[in-house]
Amino acid sequence: MNLFSNYKLSKEILMAIDKMGFEEPSPIQKASIPFILGKRDLIGQAQTGTGKTAAFGIPMIEMISKKPIIQGLVLTPTRELAIQVSEELRKIAAFKRLKILPIYGGQPIGRQIKALKMGIHIIIGTPGRVLDHLRRNTIHFKDIKYLVLDEADEMLDMGFIDDIKEIISKTPNDRQTLLFSATMPREIQKLAKQYLKKPKYIAINSGDLTKPSIEQIYYKVLDKYKLDSLCRIIDSHKVSLGIIFCRTKKSVNELTEALQARGYMADGIHGDLSQYQRNKVMRAFKEKSIEYLIATDVAARGIDIGDVSHVINYDIPQDPESYVHRIGRTGRADKKGVAITLVTPREIKQLRTIEKEIGSKITPNSLPTMEEIINLQQLQWKKQIQNLLDSNRNLSVFNNLLEELTSDYALNEVAAAALHLAFNEQTQNESLNDPYYFGETGAKQGMVKFFMNIGRNLELTPKKIVELVSEQIDMPIKDIGKINIFDRFSFIEVKEEFAPFVYEGLKNYRFNGYRIFLEPARPRS
Ligand SMILES: Nc1ncnc2c1ncn2[C@@H]1O[C@H](COP(=O)(O)OP(=O)(O)OP(=O)(O)O)[C@@H](O)[C@H]1O
Ligand SMILES: [Mg+2]
What we know:
single chain, 525 residues, alpha/beta, Rossmann fold, 4 domains, seven-stranded parallel sheet, 20 helices, globular, binds adenosine-5'-triphosphate, binds magnesium ion, hydrolase activity, DeaD_dimer, cytoplasm
C-alpha cells in the first residue's frame, strides 16, 4: 500500500504519486503535507535532495481548484530551477490536469504572454521576469492562494529582496505562504515573519546540514597545479556524471576549454550565456552526452539530476551555505555521492569555517600518484581491448602491417609498442605526491620539518631563499612556519597542514639550473 494514502489526498493526486514511483513520504513531506493541507504558513528546512518540491507541491496541487485562474505562485532563484520545479509539479498534477507554466528571463516575453492567456493555474517563475509581467499587466495575482519561495534564503537574500517585496504586495493578504530551503539562516527566519502569518517552523536534521550519504573529501593543491590536480582526481574516481563548480564565469569558460582540450566531455553553464545555450547544455548533461558540467553557483541550488556521482569544488565556495547546496547536487533521494573540494594554502581557513558551520568533517585525501592512475588506466584499457576482441570486429586491415612488423620483431614487442603509443606520453610525468614522512623529526608538535639542500646555488642569500620559497608555495613562509638556513643546508619547519603544499611546491624546484633538493627530515634515531 502506498503510504501517501494516509493523507487526505484525492485519487487523482495519489495516482500521480504512484506513477512517480514514490512509495513513502520523506521526513519533510511527512511533516509538511498535513500541515499545509491544514492551511497554515510554514518555514520548512530539510537537507538537499529530500523531496521539498513535492512537500509543497502535493498539498498545493491538491487544494487548487480546476477553475482556470492563477492560484499558485512558486518563485525560484534561477531559470533552470523554475523549469525543473514546473516539470515536477506537472507530474503531480498529471491526472488533475492543472496548467502549470514556468516564466523566466531570457525567453521571448511574447510567447509567455500568449501562454498566460491559456488559463494557467500555477506559475513558477524567477522574480525579475514575474515582476516584468506584473508591471506590464500581463499577469494578475489577485486570486493567488498559495505562494511558495523555494530556496527561500537565497530568494530573500539582498539582491532579490525588493523584487520579492513588490511581488508579494500584489498578492492577496489571505494567501498561504510557504518557505523552503536546505539552509535557513537566522536573519531569514526573522525577515520571513514579516510575510508569514504565525508560521510553523519545521526543521529536519537541522544540526547536520549535509547528508551522511555524501562522502566529503578535500585535496590540498597549489594554485599553479590546480588543473593538473583536478585531472588526476577525476581520472582516479569513477565519475558517472560530475558537476564542477568555479567561482567566476571567466573561470568556468577557461576550465571548460582546458578540459575539452584534454579530451574530457565537458561543457559550461553560467549567467552570461544565452538561455538557448543554457538549456542546451543542461539537456546534454541530463542526457549524458556530456560527462562534466562546469558551472558557477547558478547551478548550485535545487537542481535535481539523479545520476550525478560527484560534485567538485574546483574553487572553494565563498560561504558555508553555498557549500551545502553545491554538494547537495549529488547523493539525492536515496543515492550516494562524493563531494570533492580543492583547497589552496590560503583557503585552509575557509575550509575550517565551512566544516564548523555545517557540523561535519571533510576528510583530507592525497592526490593519486601517477602510478595509481596508470594502473587504473591500464585496467580500463584491458577492458576496452577485451571488449573489442570479444566483439569479433573485423580487424583484418592491420594484417599487412602486422606481418611486416613481426618479420623483424616479436609479436609481444609489437603489441607493447602499440599499447605504448595508444597510452600516450602521460607515463613520463613525475609524481606530484611522493610520500613524505610525518613522524617524530625533532619538529615541534603539529609541525613538519623538511631538510632542504640548495646545492651549489651559492648566490642564494638567506633573504632570497625565503623569497623564492614563499613564491613557490604561494604563501609567505612566515605565516605558516620558518626557515633555518645553515650554509647550503637548511630546514623548513611548517604547520602540519601546510606540509603537502611545501612538498609539492618545492620538491622539483630548480634555481639557475640547480635543483633544490628537498626531503622530509628523518626522525632522530
Ligand atoms: N517520497 C519520495 N520518494 C521517492 N523519491 C522522492 C520522494 N520525494 C521526492 N523524491 C525525488 O527525490 C529527488 C529530490 O527531490 P527535490 O528536488 O524535491 O529535493 P529538495 O529537497 O528540493 O532538494 P534541494 O534542497 O537540493 O532543492 C527528486 O528526484 C524527487 O522526484
Ligand atoms: Mg528543492
